[in-house]
Structure formats: structure tokens, C-alpha cells
Amino acid sequence: MTEADNSVGIVTAQLAVFDTPLPLLSGSLIGNWELKYETYGTLNRDKSNAVLVCHALSGHHHVAGRYTEDDAAPGWWDSMVGPGKPIDTRRFFVVGVNNLGGCHGSTGPSSLRPETGEPWGAAFPVVTVSDWVNAQALLADRLGIERWAAVIGGSLGGMQALQWTISYPARVGHALVIASAPKLSAQNIAFNDVARQAILSDPDFHGGDFYRHGTAPRRGLRLARMLGHITYLSDDGMGEKFGRMLRSGEYRFGYDVEFEIESYLRYQGDKFSDIFDANTYLLMTKALDYFDPAADAGHDLAAALSDVKASFLVASFTSDWRFSPARSRELVDALTRADRRVSYAEIESVHGHDAFLMLDPPYVALMRTYLDRVAQEVGA
């Protein structure tokens, strides 16, 4: 099978417009809001083969395929979604959504506010994982999907998959929670705050209303991405790829780029600051910080999961220190205590947290095997 054969091909993003205000956990309301989304595959007659793919912090709705033949790269999880791939679009109807507060077409801080005709900016309310799930549920209603065969996500996307099973237990058959956690550790919250401070302290931030100044806090966003990217990689992975290689082969005795790892991080930061919105970055990291479904159940995760009906696949990666295997085992333990159905895999990988985006053969085989079972259950 060639690359063209197992691609979803040329895709088109769609826009769902909602005129009913969406109440948020913060107490705010978002009115006249929109969600950008894409679909791949065909919804079967009884609408039982739908799969929702939830994105991580810097992700979006463009999960697979290309917009034109000339696109330099396909969607962010094209390796996993398509004909013959683990999330097989010959069997599943796959939906990808850009979350509320995003910067890729859904209503967010850079969107024009209907009341003022200017970007929301700092006035855009803080959103949470449960807010995203509620918005996604309204999109599912719009698409006529009463129940997802599976909800799948890595990292922050895995948190959404977990929240779906709690908020809408009857609407999820399977939840695939990959490289994720039931809540952030103090260290993770600390990393997020340092990243936010880099943005907030940028002179071009202007309190979040930088749009009206015709500028953007690119330096702060660049630093935030560089910091985040370090935490997504493993020490072994960075060592294997870059080691202590010098660009010129010798020390320059200055503070410009000398090591290859420095060049790589600056490239990643520069690229990200050109395509992502700083306010969205702040919102996404806050959603990560606030996620803690056990908080409303006396900090007993098993109790929070007591009404869950979905079956779970929980997967972690040995070199992921940002969302370590111990955090996945914490979720598995709570699901077991709640007498829920759960399978767990800890996968050898040198790719760190980014491993959920990679093609390590044991990971791909695991996803394929589990989703084959899901497809058989729904007759897909």
C-alpha cells in the first residue's frame, strides 16, 4: 500500500456555528460561538462508528490528510488516521475539533467579538476541559452522533477523553487515554506557569490586547515553546539526536547558538511563535492546570469514576517524564477500584512525551489491536 493509498487524501475543514450561549465552568457565557472541525470516513447507517480525536495543547482540528496536493505536511496525526491505519477510516467516521479558545478557526481570543467588532483578547474567559467536552457534545448533537464508539486523545487530549466518560457516561463506548494523567503534578503546573510568565512579561503582550497594537508577544511565546519542547523530549532522545554537537565544530566563547540542540530549540520556538496565538497558549495551559475530576468527589478518583460506563485503554511511555507511567497507573488503579474495564500498556520508547505522536511499532500494534476490537463491536 502506497502513501497515497493509505491517506484520507484532500480534506476540507468545516465550521459549526452555535447561537445558543454556552455556559462555562467559570460562570461566564460564550454566545454566538463557532467550532472548526474535520471529518474523515463515512458515518454508518446507525451512526455507531463515530470516533472523536481530541487534540493536545498545540493541536487543532486538522488531524489527517492535506488541504492541497502541495501541502508540506499532512494533519498532525496522519500517521494514525486513514485507510488501513489503526484509526481506520474505512471502518470509522473520525471527527477532529479545534477546541473553544483555539486559534485555528474556532472562537477564541483572536476572534472578533460580536458586541464590539474587535478581537476578544484579554476579555475571552478561561475555559476548562469540561467546557471543551460540553462544546464537543453539542457538535456531536449537530452531527447526529448520540454515542462515540471511541474518544481518543494524547496528553491534554487524553484528559478530554477521560472527562467525556465522566460528563457523558452513556455517550462513550471506549476511551483511549494516551500519555496523559488524571491531574497535573506540582512540577507540571510550575512548568506551565514559567511558560505563561514568559508571555505575560513580554512588552508586546499589552495585557492580552496586543491585536489592537498590531503586534504579538513572539519573544515570550518563543520562550514558552522552547521550555515546553524540552519537557516533551527525553534526555536519552535528545542525547541520541543531538548529543553535544557543535554547529561550527569548536567553541565560539559567546552567547549565540553554538550547540545543535540550541539551534533546534530556537527553530521550534520561532516556528511556533509565527503560527500560534499567545492568548490561546495561556488558556490551554490553564485548562491543563485546572483539570482534576477527583476534586468534586472528595479527591477520590475512583469515586469520580463510579458512574463511568466506557471501557478504557490507558497507555504510557517509559521515557515520558512530563506525564510519567506512574500517572497513568494512578488512573488504572482508580478504574480498577471503581470496577471499570481497563487495559493498560507501558511502551518502551526513547521519544519522551512526544512518543504518542510517533510510530514506535509496539504502540502502533497496540492501537491497531484495540481499535480492531472496537470496530468489531460496532460492526464496522
Automatic annotation (TrEMBL):
Pfam families: Abhydrolase_1 (PF00561). The record marks 322 as: Important for acyl-CoA specificity. GO terms for biological process: homoserine metabolic process; methionine biosynthetic process. Its EC number is 2.3.1.46. The active site is at 155 (nucleophile), 320, 353. GO terms for molecular function: homoserine O-acetyltransferase activity; homoserine O-succinyltransferase activity. Keywords: Acyltransferase, Amino-acid biosynthesis, Cytoplasm, Methionine biosynthesis, Transferase. Pathway: Amino-acid biosynthesis; L-methionine biosynthesis via de novo pathway; O-succinyl-L-homoserine from L-homoserine: step 1/1. Coiled coil: none annotated. It catalyses: L-homoserine + succinyl-CoA = O-succinyl-L-homoserine + CoA. InterPro entries: AB_hydrolase_1, AB_hydrolase_fold, HAT_MetX-like. HAMAP family: MetX_acyltransf. PANTHER family: HOMOSERINE O-ACETYLTRANSFERASE. Homodimer. This is Homoserine O-succinyltransferase. The gene is metX.
